[in-house]
What does this fold into?
Amino acid sequence: MKWFIFFVFLFCIPFVSATTLHGTVYNIDFDVVEDVIVEINSQPKQSMIASGGVYSFELNPGDYTLIANYYIGDELIASTTEEVSIIEEGDFVLDLILFPNFDDELVEDFDFDDNDGSNNYIYWIIGALILVILLFFYIKKKKPKEKKFDRDEADDVLEFIKKSDGRTTQKEIRKNLGLGEAKTSLIISELVHDKKIRRIKKGRGNIIILNK
It folds into this structure.
């Protein structure tokens, strides 16, 4: 009976897998934001302070809600929420863009009991202004998903890895080629998808290995 349980245990081990979800937190000007509280509704729930603007979670396949909040003191300054679907094992990058928190006090100073119609014009202006601001932030949020890169830059990354004896780190690639962190992650993810390289998570960094 003990041998049977032992073999069942060994048989089940290969089916236990996890996915690494990580990325960098930016503000709407695409500057890295440090010490952001990032949490995800996994079981059990995971949360961390993104030191250096970088977060990372180990997840099983499933649908999740990722929330990032940036506080100064007790005041919430900016936040964002992303829906994430994990369908397979691997290493995935999802950079987050924080959006400023609107202050409800913008309309508290107006007297809504005045029904003579004199303030209706002001209400229309406020509504239009809020709509324009929301549209502006919506367009800004969509821009990162349209980020492209030159195929020449991907070739430069491959050439650098070859010159490094087929093994280097993502940090070295970024430093030597003068690429931004977000663009480097985008290029590396595309090359991994094309099976030209492998990316291995080590600590808070990634080791990049050329596929032969």
Q: What stands out?
A: The mean pLDDT is 81. The first strand starts at residue 19 and ends at 26. The chain has two domains: 2-100, 148-210.
